[in-house]
């Protein structure tokens, strides 16, 4: 009597596990797993972020507490995108250290590294609230910016309050405010760099 019961519960476990794997696989395929990067760039994990069509791709190194990452978000070429971590213990824009990719006045893609002092930040290119062992670079291709950077996760913690955003630039390349409505106000996430 014990044997058939045991077999049946094993089957249930197998079926449940398969269903979970299928669900996870589908979610991943629809979100970010098919993203391609230039030769030499590869990331272990990815998450499709909840809004703005953005995705985060990363490889976490526990030994030194760093994450090599790529942030990708769609934008017109005359716009900017940004990703960062709130190091002020808060959630959202103010107090976040961010990387902003945009086209400068000369048409080249550049990255600004800046601490957002408030919701009306000065956008001074400077030192962030966490270590950046490999400085940020960015590219614009197929209607999206991708920012590449390696960060030392603050407090060596694998969960971080992250923010991201997209907005317009002036014709001279200056970063203009992002929309203050809808999904532009929902771009915050407690990001888990271990599990994603
Ligand atoms: C991702 O790639 C797989 C395998 O090539 C394919 O079946 C799937 O449709 C792709 N998903 C998306 C969102 O492009
Ligand atoms: C970060 O934490 C991991 C354990 O999670 C530890 O092995 C590593 O030494 C720590 N790294 C730093 C830079 O503190
Ligand atoms: C910010 O400073 C870094 C390092 O000096 C530089 O590489 C980058 O181009 C600067 N970004 C902007 C937008 O000026
Ligand atoms: C962190 O460790 C990984 C693998 O252990 C290594 O590839 C990477 O270069 C290290 N990063 C830094 C900034 O030391």
Task: Please describe what this structure looks like.
The chain is α+β, with helices and mostly antiparallel strands and 196 residues long. It has a five-stranded antiparallel β-sheet, with no helix packed on it. A five-stranded antiparallel β-sheet has the order 6-5-4-9-10, with no helix packed on it. It is built from one helix and ten strands; from the N terminus they run H-E-E-E-E-E-E-E-E-E-E. The longest helix has 30 residues. Helices cover 15% and strands 38% of the residues. The protein has two domains: 34 residues; 155 residues, Sandwich (Immunoglobulin-like), CATH 2.60.40.1210. The structure holds 2-acetamido-2-deoxy-beta-D-glucopyranose (NAG) (4 copies). One 2-acetamido-2-deoxy-beta-D-glucopyranose binds next to loops.
């Amino acid at each position: 009597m014990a044997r058939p019961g045991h077999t049946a519960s094993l089957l249930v476990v197998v079926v449940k596990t398969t269903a979970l794997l299928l669900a996870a696989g589908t979610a991943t395929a629809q979100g970010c797993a098919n993203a391609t990067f230039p030769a030499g760039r590869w990331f272990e994990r990815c998450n499709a972020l909840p809004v703005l069509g953005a995705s985060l791709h990363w490889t976490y190194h526990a030994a030194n507490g760093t994450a090599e990452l790529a942030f990708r978000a769609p934008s017109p070429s005359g716009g900017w995108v940004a990703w960062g971590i709130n190091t002020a213990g808060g959630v959202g824009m103010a107090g976040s250290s961010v990387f902003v990719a945009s086209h400068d006045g000369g048409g080249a893609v550049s990255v600004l590294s800046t601490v957002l002092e408030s919701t009306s930040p000065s956008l001074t290119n400077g030192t962030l609230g966490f270590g950046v062992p490999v400085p940020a670079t960015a590219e614009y291709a197929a209607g999206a910016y991708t920012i590449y950077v390696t960060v030392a996760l603050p407090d060596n913690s694998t969960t971080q309050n992250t923010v991201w955003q997209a907005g317009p630039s002036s014709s001279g390349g200056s970063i203009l405010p992002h929309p203050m409505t809808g999904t532009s106000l929902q771009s915050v996430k407690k990001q888990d760099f271990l599990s994603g």
